[in-house]
Specification:
The chain has 16 helices and 17 strands. 39% of the residues lie in helices and 19% in strands. The structure holds acetoacetyl-coenzyme A (CAA). The site of acetoacetyl-coenzyme A has 28 residues, from helix 2, helix 6 and helix 7.
């Protein structure tokens, strides 16, 4: 049985901090954010928003757009790394909010859980729900997989320039109009690591930034190796001599903690794939230097990062490689459109990959590309750490959905925060009623109880 993504909706908070204002306040060169990281604006949640209401707002959008009733939805999964309760799952809050609109008890038989594995958990949730449909368990119903996060780092930390917030919801069913997942090729890699993690009770993560960048690329490459083997053994793709698996992906969507991480990761994967092929000789001639090798090629990630001479040479090599026409062609045709939304919104942790997918569809369609039958590869990464590589084919009915995509309209009118407003919000100094904007027909948080008996209980309303 086929299964895949039928439709997709997003919800992005209305507040943002501009990269220029951020750089000025932190004494940074704005070009570091805008060009070095690919960050122009970072979405920031208002005082009356949390990841559950971002998720509920996204769900309502996809349900209203498709005229769905709660009876059409058999499962609602939420993947997040911004959980605020150690036991009560975030999908229960979302169902509570949706029932304010659709009626008490209307989602009574909608199963689901909250899943966690840093930024990769949404991909595991998609895979599990796809298989629920493939197994025939869905009985004609659809699943909602929501990825919702607030990417918030400590004040003054290097991660602070890669923040953002938002939710993406994907409607899955057995007659998907957007993308059908390729069966039996989803591949993973996993390793116990501490590149980025958030201990109990801490609102912001502990991050080893450069370590996390390198680990992300290594883990995705390992998952890609496994994917390649499955694709060949399952006969999904016939690989000819001197081809790489990336030649068979029309688009590549990567996890985007900041948009340039997509560029970095693509360059790493392409280098790795092309190194074995005759075309590499021509690339090396253009670059004019040998590909650098670390002093200890079998060393740890720490030893590679500590090898300053290698890191400097490798950086130089990568820069030259990414300037070659051959790499530029791959970048422009397979990745560039997926980065546009990330530049405007920032990091969405679990949702970053899927915002990139959404961005790619809209901006490739606007270029006039016929997307039918195109294969999209996904490189998902979650710190801690695990990667997942999978793929799917754009379906003949895709245009029905993609033609009306309009990122700016879906984000809505935004308010540019002043630095002091940003600081107040970041340090949680405001109560929900002190929110910066008042939105209509949206779920907002109105109260979090603090008394001993009911501490942590949250109350939400649907604004009129
Ligand atoms: N003008 C133009 N470019 C500049 C510049 C300037 N004045 N100054 C620096 N740059 C460039 C640098 O050359 C670099 O580009 P390249 O990577 O192409 O070399 C880029 O700007 C970033 O500069 P640095 O590497 O010096 O930046 P940093 O070390 O201060 O911080 C970071 C970068 C490590 C990503 C940091 O923001 C961070 O810790 N972020 C959070 C962790 C993270 O996002 N990790 C990603 C992988 S883990 C993951 O993906 C999970 C997740 O979602 C968090």
């Amino acid at each position: 049985m086929t299964a895949g993504i039928d439709d997709i909706a997003i919800y992005i908070p209305r507040l943002y901090i501009d990269a220029a204002d951020f750089a000025e306040a932190r004494g940074l060169d704005p070009v570091k954010l805008q060009k070095g990281l690919g960050v122009s604006q970072m979405a920031i949640v208002d005082a009356n928003q949390d990841p559950a209401c971002l998720a509920a707002n996204a769900c309502l959008r996809v349900m209203e757009k498709n005229n769905l009733s709660p009876d059409d939805i058999g499962r609602l999964y939420i993947s997040t790394e911004s959980a605020f309760d150690e036991s009560k799952a975030m999908n229960s809050y979302v169902i509570g909010m949706l029932e304010q609109v659709y009626g008490q008890g209307s989602f009574e038989h909608c199963g689901g859980v909250e899943t966690k594995f840093a930024c990769v958990s949404g991909s595991y949730a998609l895979y599990d729900n796809t298989n629920w449909i493939r197994a025939g368990e869905a009985e004609g119903k659809s699943a909602l997989v929501v990825v919702s996060d607030i990417a918030k780092y400590d004040m003054g930390s290097s991660g602070e320039m890669t923040q953002g917030a938002g939710a993406v919801v994907m409607l899955l069913n057995d007659e998907p109009r957007l993308l059908e997942f390729d069966p039996k090729v989803t591949s993973t890699s996993i390793k116990d690591e501490y590149d980025f993690y958030r201990p109990f009770g801490k609102e912001t993560p502990i991050v080893h930034g450069q370590y996390s960048n390198l680990l992300y690329m290594i883990q995705v490459r390992k998952a890609l190796e496994a994917y390649k083997k499955k694709v060949i053994s399952s006969n999904l793709i016939k690989m000819k001599e001197n081809e790489t698996i990336l030649d068979h992906m029309d688009y590549i969507n990567m996890h985007l903690p900041y948009s340039n991480m997509g560029k970095k990761a693509l360059a790493y994967l392409v280098r790795h794939e092309w190194r074995q092929l005759p075309r590499w000789k021509n690339i090396l001639e253009q670059i004019g230097m040998e590909e650098p090798i670390p002093k200890d090629p079998r060393g740890t990630i720490e030893s590679v990062l500590a090898d300053e001479e290698f890191m400097a040479k490798d950086h130089e090599f990568t820069k030259l490689f990414t300037k070659t026409q051959e790499y530029q062609d791959v970048f422009e045709s397979k990745l560039s459109s997926s980065l546009i939304a990330s530049t405007m919104i920032g990091n969405l942790y679990t949702a970053s990959l899927y915002l990139g997918f959404r961005s790619s569809l809209e901006f490739e369609y606007q270029k006039g590309v016929d997307l039918e039958g195109k294969r999209i590869g996904f490189g998902s990464y979650g710190s801690g750490s695990s990667a997942m590589v999978f793929s799917g084919l754009v379906q003949p009915e895709y245009e029905e959905i993609v033609k009306s995509m309009n990122l700016e309209a879906e984000i809505g009118q935004r308010k540019r925060l002043t630095w002091s407003e940003y600081e107040e919000l970041h340090e949680n100094k405001l109560t929900p009623e002190q929110s910066k904007v008042h939105t209509k027909k949206e779920f907002v948080l109105v109260d979090v109880k603090t008394d001993v008996e009911s501490r942590g209980e949250r109350r939400y309303v649907f604004t009129s």
